[in-house]
Amino acid sequence: MNVTAKPGAGVNAQENGNTHEDGRYRAVDDAIARLDYAPDALLEALNAAQESFGHLSEEALTYVARQLGVPLSQAYAVATFYEMYHLTPTGARHCLICTDPACAVAGAEAVLAAAEQHAGADGDVRVHRATCLGLCDQGPAALIDGRAYANVKADAVAALFNGGGAARAPAGDGRAARHDAPDRRARPDRPGRTPRRGRVHRPE
Amino acid sequence: MLDPTDLDAHRAEGAFTGLNKALTAMTPEDVIEQIKMSGLAGRGGAGFPTGLKLQFTRAATGMPKYVVCNFDESEPGTFKDRVLMQGDPFRTIEGVILSAYAVGATEGFIFIRGEYPEAAAVVQEAIDTLYDAGLLGKDIMGSGFDFDLSIRRGAGAYICGEETALFEAIEGKQGFPRLKPPFPTTHGVFGRPTAISNVETLALMPDIVRNGGEWLKQWGGGKSVGIKLFCLSGHVKQPGVVEVPYGTTVRDLVERFGGGGFDGAPQAILMGGAAGGFLHPDNFDTPLTNEALNPLGAPIGSGVVMVFNQNVDLGAVLKTLARFFVHESCGKCVPCRVGTVQIAKLLDRITGGDGAPDDLARLESLGQMMRKSCLCGLGMSAPNAMLSTLAHFRPMYDRLIAGGGA
Amino acid sequence: MITLTIDGNSIQAAPGTTVMEAALAHGIDIPRLCYHPELSISGNCRLCMVEVEGWLNPTISCSLECQEGMVVRTQSAQLTAIRREILGLLLSDHPLNCLVCDKAGSCILQKYAYEVGLAGTPYPVEVARPLHQDDNPFFIRDHQFCIMCSRCVRVCDEVVGAHAIDIAGRGFHNHIATPFDGPMIDSSCVFCGSCVQVCPTAALLPASRKGLGREWELDRIKTICGYCGVGCEIEFAVKDGEILYARGTPEGPVNGEFLCTKGRYGWDFAESPDRLTQPLIRRDLAYALGLTDTPWALPETSVLEVEKPNIEDSFIPVDWDTALDVTATKLAETVQTYGPDAVMGLASARCTNEENYLFQKLMRLGIGTNNVDHCARL
Lengths: 204, 406, 378
Fold this sequence. Notes:
The complex is a heterotrimer of chains A (204), B (406) and C (378). With 204 residues, chain A is an alpha+beta fold. Chain A has helices at residues 13-16, 26-34, 42-53, 58-68, 72-81, 101-105, 108-121, 157-160, and strands at residues 93-98, 125-130, 142-144, 147-149. Chain B is globular, with a radius of gyration of 22 Å. In chain B, helix 3 packs across helix 6 (89-103) and helix 16 (384-392) crosses helix 17. Chain B starts with 6 loop residues before the first helix and ends with a helix. Chain B is built from 17 helices and 11 strands. Chains in contact: A-B, A-C, B-C. At the A-B interface, helix 3, helix 5 and helix 6 of A face helix 5, helix 7, strand 3, strand 7 and strand 8 of B.
């Protein structure tokens, strides 16, 4: 892709263009190369590292900072600023439970407690409180290993980690999202329909 | 419903006809003129006139220029952008390309919050499809116009919805908002002129360009022109996204489009999300316009309409919102970094039964100070919900202070 | 030039000047914590808010460009109320240790609290950053006093170029951090102490002064750094004849407030017993000149191999006239016996330009040789 000149783009490519010998760094190297070794690749590279390793180790942060020519103090600061980066090993599975007011009135705190209890029993799971997952119409909502779940029930939380137990959010993936989509060509001259869940109703 | 990333199906229904019209029959200035005429204002919450934004960015000196789509939808209670993007990413991307053509940008970014991995996958697939179809990249639709678009992912920070903090994140830094001025139209991402717009704003552009600026003006009026997506949640029979004209009343919105209306006797509606305010039932017949709702301290904002019935402990909701801002304050400026913490502490004290009447005056003066002195919109709006309850739900506080807590 | 009015004074300012700069240049003091004239504008403390006639809300003056005809007020009931609120918030997150604080008297937070008459905070107290890092010989990082003005981060990045520290974390519990919160020595820090210089509170304190004196007890002695030829101005803070710490001053014509690690921390030689404070003549020469009765010869073992040589074993102190006479006589003998090119002069980078000029003139005209060089050329 043609990337127009940005500050710092390419300056480190020649010097640091080698990829990491550890194959697990492939996604990180890809992100860095895609953005031409410019410092602005930091978030993209850290996203890739977080996804590849489940956390950002000193080694990974140092590697990314060096490849991009970003001061290590800045890389560390960025890694601690954003909610979704973890600096310590977190276990293989990540779970975010939304506790915003809409999910809270739907019983999110009970879901969170159940999830934390499950995590206590299963060392592989790390549970975090999320502020809003954008599923406020279908709360309580959860995001487990990058997949969104809606209408989560406290007593069904444990089953969620085994891939069942609750309805996947209609917004789950690109295909499933179909019935969740706004009717892009609805014209004002068409009669308005009763809006269904997640449907955009364009007025008469 | 169409497959969200089936380009042919979408084109059969008119997708990219607006872009085609712009590229073949309109100059960039014509596009800006139509957007200005339409009265389109930003749908992300701030409501800045989009046409002016495009005009300023086009007029700014310095190349390259950028367009940015703000898909960092993080306001609690907002999910319209996710629904739009996961259902039909092409509509918004068409708006992005139109913006780029209007301002003369050669590269654009869609900034997606980290909590939306599934939406990001849909958008990435759409972008790949558009590159394959010649609707992104070099010589779009044979017009000679080049434009590259890519996704940048956030990593969990509400502040990145603030446009300058979003730029910082794209540049690979902490999401600290910048001082304004200078504004993004002259000093945006990478310090270059940048037109940044919300997903919903961009999604309206294809229709405006295709149908002409007058199209949007058939709804609403004054400073609230056109149609707006609202996110119904909470105690509504059927929550979801609803698009209605500005000027519909709040009650109408819930009762006509909420699948049967209120779920239980309503106590309050949180308008505009955490950064918004609570609307008292006495004011439910207020029309959904900025002019009518702003004075009530319950702005439209990003379109949150979160209903709470009489069974809800409003004090607990307020504390949740206060904790939200403690968690999400970036910590750059003093009034927000410490003020959000003190709002939470005072609310804890009051709802815990240890409040004094003085605490209400303290909350009020703290909130007013934050509105005036915080560095960015997050801090300025952090006390809004609390202030709206002080103004319209005073008996709740009096009860808490007199009765020693909840 | 732009003409604007600040607090009733008509002021001329060059285009691009900020209201803060214009006000300060005309003796109008605007409260400020994060602003520093040598650093970029951060705008995080919000204390420098001013009112502009015709504007709805007050705005910060450090980033506000002067505009023609602008009418600015830096003091009003509203601004005082805002400043009191902000200072009250800062004090809710800052131990009121002024009674035992080394920075008392030069702490800017204390100064403004005094000015608005704030004895404490009206808010519940919670100190966000209990971290105390005493991990290097030069400065102590006591985070409880930190107000996150970010001056240290900016000076390290913008002036020093080390970027050893940055703001880690988010919100109330954010803090200034080295990579992985490790010791300073493991970071890219060059220990120039510029961060200590610009810190407005006791969060960054010279380790050498800890507990040894309060600001108002200290004498200030300005001098020129002797380490190199740049000529940085240093101000020593001295109590009872002993140096407690060194700092730069804004008036320093060469260096402003900034010093390198040698200038700021390398002053313990001043009171070192090893320091040469008078001329010395080698004992064998002194014996030959009749300055001592004890004969002496160069030892078999080189002094370089003696672990801790005592200088007085080999030298005796003399007065300046004697030392200069001996030097002049020896130089003249050498020139007469072997010619001027038998002499070479090596000057020092630690001397001034003027001294080095005179030195080469002495060599060329006095001695008659062009054999003159300078350590900085190496």
